[in-house]
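Hi support team,

I submitted a single chain yesterday and got back a structure, but I'm not sure I'm reading the token output correctly. Could someone confirm the output below corresponds to the sequence I sent? I've pasted both exactly as they appear in my results page.

Thanks,
R.
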Amino acid sequence: MEVEMPLMVILGGGESGVGAALLAQAKGYAVFLSDKSRLQDAYRQILQQNNIPFEEGQHTEDRILQATEVVKSPGIPEKAPIVQKLRERNIPVISEIELASRYTNAQLIGITGSNGKTTTTLLVYHLLKTAGLNVGLAGNIGDSFARQVLEHSFDYYVLELSSFQLDDMYQARMNVAILLNITPDHLDRYEYQFQNYVNSKFRVLQNMTPDDTFIYYDESPVISAELPVKKPVARLLPVSLVDTPQPGAYLKDGFLVVNDGAQEFETALADLPLKGKHNAINMLAATLAAQSVGVKPEALQTGLQTFQNAAHRLEPAGDVKGVHFINDSKATNVDSVYYALESMTTPVIWIAGGQDKGNEYDQLMSLVREKVKALICLGKDNRKLVSYFSDTVPVLFETQDVNEAVTKGLELANPGDTVLLSPACASFDLFRNYLDRGDQFKEAVKKMMDIKQ
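Hi R., thanks for writing in. Yes, this is the structure output for that exact sequence:
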């Protein structure tokens, strides 16, 4: 008699969804993938080649509700009708991270936080790779975790974890967890309750044991307040810019000092490619994570000095007539802009604006007053920016054209100044996404360089 296979339904046919479908199929599940949008050609082809049934442009409820278990894309909100119906029927809904973690014995290093996740994740991965470790990069970045578990045998995975991924993780266990910061973000997904978002971030601690390591930024008031409540059982390694915790990591007299309890490592901050206090925190946390899995000082030094950050994060975009252009298009909230402005050492022409996310700019006022000589508002509706800063900045200019923003930035700058695109807003009013905004900015700078040469 033929035994009926359990049905794994995958909601969402992007990188993580297709990877989850392949892994579930390989592990003996009947698989059905459903995406309410059109699939990308490459993903459709993979599903067809592997004979995985799928639908696009709709969710067929009758079929989905037959699932034994559902893997949900992190982009699908809890309030989506199909998710609500799955909950009503007590059908388990998990993330791709949860699924993939069942089928690997690798050590998992999970990084979360409202800001700095991607930089820190890439740096941890680079440090381990430089040290010669057999390591994969996944989560909210890179290739599908599930597909890598299927196709590779890595000893370590470095995982960037968004709050949405953490929400659907239950049994997954991080051997090393990093929590960088928690500031209000994505509150529309958390019933506009900040505590719900805080709880989500702290899920990175679930299932950790005393043999595991929890690295966190000690000066984050939210983290400090929550630690006594959550009572983590893992070994605690704090990161600080003001204290000298041992073991832990801190900044002292211009040096990064990192001590996991087994060895100490020091290096001069000025010699490293990442700038700004926020990146000092990222580097301290990443180096501490690498050190805690055995990476030696020589490899740490080499890795830190050779690291190149992802695009659109304080990315040099070129110099024109001695004026520096920096692309920080990924700075889609006020907190990120604070870090960007804080790291500037020259007068700034600041390009900001876009689709407002309920921003309050009070925390930027002192930095803007100190460092910003002109504000260029790049957006369809700049009223809030104009209202906040018209009495603070000497020059304020509005445009909806990125080329005009770059031209005006050069016009307002003196040699040695910096034109900084750090929008504090979403990009969807004028651009497809923050990547498109950053790419168009870089292209505009490149055109200017070609003309002025």
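A quick pointer for reading it: The chain has three domains: 7-94, 98-306, 315-452. Let us know if anything else looks off.

Best,
Support desk
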